[in-house]
Structure formats: C-alpha cells, structure tokens
Amino acid sequence: METLSESLAFGGTQGVYRHASDVTGTDMTFSLYMPPHAKGTRLPVLWYLSGLTCSHANVTDKGEYRRACAEHGIIFIAPDTSPRGEDVPNDDDWAFGQGAGFYVDATEEPWAANFRMRSYIEDELPALIAREFPAADLARQGITGHSMGGHGALTIALRNPERFKSVSAFAPIASPMSCPWGEKALNGYLGPDRATWAEYDACALIAQGARLGALLVDQGDADGFLAEQLKPALLERACAEAGIDLSLRMQAGYDHSYNFVSTFMSDHIAWAAARL
Amino acid sequence: METLSESLAFGGTQGVYRHASDVTGTDMTFSLYMPPHAKGTRLPVLWYLSGLTCSHANVTDKGEYRRACAEHGIIFIAPDTSPRGEDVPNDDDWAFGQGAGFYVDATEEPWAANFRMRSYIEDELPALIAREFPAADLARQGITGHSMGGHGALTIALRNPERFKSVSAFAPIASPMSCPWGEKALNGYLGPDRATWAEYDACALIAQGARLGALLVDQGDADGFLAEQLKPALLERACAEAGIDLSLRMQAGYDHSYNFVSTFMSDHIAWAAARL
Question: Which stretches are annotated as coiled coil (chains A, B) (predicted)?
Fold first, then answer.
C-alpha cells in the first residue's frame, strides 16, 4: 500500500492511499480519516460508499465528516466506486462503467474481469485495512453511502448483517431493479436474467428475508433524481412489510449534492457512533 | 448578476453567481452562503479571500464554513482571486497572473487593464452585494483569508479599518515585500519602485501607522511555505511594535491545505461573530 498524501485535520490524519487490487486487477485508491486517539486504542470504522461519477475524492473534499469523526473517535473510509484506467472497459454513459461499479461482481463481458466491487468492498479492502491500520477495530463496523453508494451500503449490509452494527444512507437508489440507472447497470454487469439481480437490490433482499437493525435514510425532497431513480417509497414499503425500523427523513428543499450530504453527515456519524 | 447555482445547505442557501465587472473588464464569479434567517432580518457579512491558484470554488467545496455561518447567522462571501479568460494576460508561474491577483490594482502593462482586485474587492463587489442581497448588512463586515488571501484580508483591513469590525487570517503572506511570491507579483503588477508596494504589505502598512483592532492568525507549523513565503514572525514583530493585539496561534502539525483551513474555520467564524 502506497501513501499518496497525509495531512492533519481536526487533530487526526486525513490520508489517501493506493494499492494493487487482486480483485479488480487494477490499482485502487481510497481515503481514510484516522481521528485523534491515544496510542494503542482501537477504533470503530464507518465505511462511506460514494455515488455515480464519484471517486474517494468527492466526499473527502466536500463531505464535512472529519469534525464529527474526531469527536466520536470513528475511522472514516471512502473507497472508489469502480476500477479505473485506460485498460479497463468503460462506457459513454456516466451512469455505467468507470465511476459506476454499482457494488456488484460483474459476470458479463467485458466487465467480469475488473468490475468486482462487491468482493473488493466486502473482502479485499477490509483485509487490507486490518493489516495496514491496526487501530481499526473491525469488530465494530458501520456503513453508509450516497445515491449509488447508498444502494451499495444497504445491499452489503443486508447480505452481511453480522458485520455491520450501524447502517444508514443518503438518497440511496432504493431498488436498482426498478429504475433506469439500475436496470442498465445490472443488465450490463449481470446479464438479462433478473433473478441474478435480486442480491443487488435492497428491496428484493428484504422481500427474500434479509433483515437489518434500525436504518436511517435522509432524502432531499428537491432531489432531481427522486421520482425516477431513487424511489424511497419502495424501501419504505419493503421495510414496513418486513418490520425493519426505518427512519426515512424527507428533508425539505434539499437536492442530491454534497450540500445535502454534508448538512446531514454529522447526524449519520452520530447514528453510527451510538451503535459502534 | 446571473445565478450559476443555488443549493440548500445547513438550512441556508449556497449560491454561485457571475457578473460583468467594470473594474476588471471580465466576468467575475463568486460564491455566497446565505444562512437561514427570518424574512427582513439583516445579517453581517464575512469576506473570505482565497489563496494562490484558487477560485471561489476551493473554499466553497472544502472550507466547511456553512455549519458555523448557519449557527451564527453570518453571510459568507468568497470572491475569485483574479480576472480570468483567454483574453486576459497570464503567466506560466502559478504564483503570478490568473489565479494570483494579490489583491492589488496593477499599474504595469499588460496587467493594468484587468488586474484590479483591490478596487474589485474594496468597491465594486460590495456595491453589487448591497444591491443584490438586501439581507446583507454592510455596516457589519468582517474579513478573513488564506495565504495570498490572508495577505489580502490584512492589507484591505489595514487600509479600511472603519469598514471591518473583525479581521483574521489563515497562514497569511505576512509581508509580500519580503518573500519570493510577493516580490515577483508586486514587481510585475506595480513595477520596480518598492515605495509603491508598501500599501500592499501588511507589515509596511503597520509600520506607517495603520492600525487594526484584535487580530486572529492561525498558522500550521508543518506548512511547507512557512519559512520562505509566509513569515508570521514579521507580522508578530510589526504588531508588537505597533501595539496591535495579535493572537498568533502556531498549530502543531498542520500544513497549508484546506485540511488546516477547515479545522480552524469555525474558530474564525466565531471570532467574527463575536465582533459583528
């Protein structure tokens, strides 16, 4: 693992790191904020999965998470959203291909060799974190994310309920099987058999019996993607039918940008801190 | 004035605006955060002047000022650092020309026609703000800035002590007459007569009798520009000799980046709020 940058922030260290990923076959970059802590202390980890077009950099620059993570003593990790590079397949659509990995393990060509973000986030990157950051206590993990990353957070948590003690999301894609972004991506990465899509759809996973503890979701009601792509009502219905304790907060006047995410970031960190 | 974007953030509105500047002969872009407030309320204004290579966007993305401005009810304005455009003179050095206006009114060619950031910040932009944002109470103004923008904040405040009830700076260039960045810029914009430079040098202005109320300066001691370019000791000596109440806080381990600025931003906003 290579350190690209480290800089003191709110008493802790904001770092950006790169490593060669066996899973994606590419170099992968992520950011990690290590809050101030006494030597030898072990700290809980909050994963933040980013949305379409984003890399680790968007939330690192604009997410305003460091103050709250320093206060609560939480490590904040922001992975990339896909493998990248000239040798990696891509698409002209910004909602598919590089920057749009949808947190799936692709099975279709030409994506299958590199687009394995499920395994990267679920297995390879946590193992790297455990090796490289001994302060990270992986017995205490939470996960959150924005938009496509909110979808990632929900589906990864639903498939791994023992791993995550805290789950939340900002404007998640509630059901990729039920929106144009998701249908294109799942068809492209997994092929036309929709039965294979269900393990990457929060609402389908819940309908099949997957369960979560309490779930916090913030959603701006002025979000331009709300009606066509995000569809929080589908998640609300799925949680209601399954008895999942969803706090869906419709935030009046907020859009889909980091002005929305940063406004409510400290709430999500406090939510995680209370459970970690 | 044209609205480029407006987005709800921390209950207020983060906007980016563009207008045709008579002073610079170009379009100029700035950002303005309007905190939540009751209709008819008038609010104090905090100007934030940015550093070399920056536009309004750097602090708008990375400055983490919105939460504190919302709490204290302060309007936050981030202008650009120079005129820009294909028809505007430039230089290969990132510390001179576009993105590096040094808050002077240039007298030398080819800069004199456009590089008039002193008049832009002191006169034209405040007049525009007064017209376009009636909630802005220009009887209550504070000013701060980072690096070259810290130099701008100090010199503009020293020349206009009646206008600014609050002054602070992050890692300011304390004396452009005494560092390579400043010497190149002042020579380029003003010509070789150093007597003309003094009104753009905080330490020289203080030596000539200019005064300020209390002044807050934060400076990281791991800042790579500290010894050669920023030289806070010169400001400390000038303030001591003049009896100016300087709080110079050397911040252990902090660098020159927005990780430093954002960490202490809320302190500077609280400093301004206490005086506005």
Answer: none
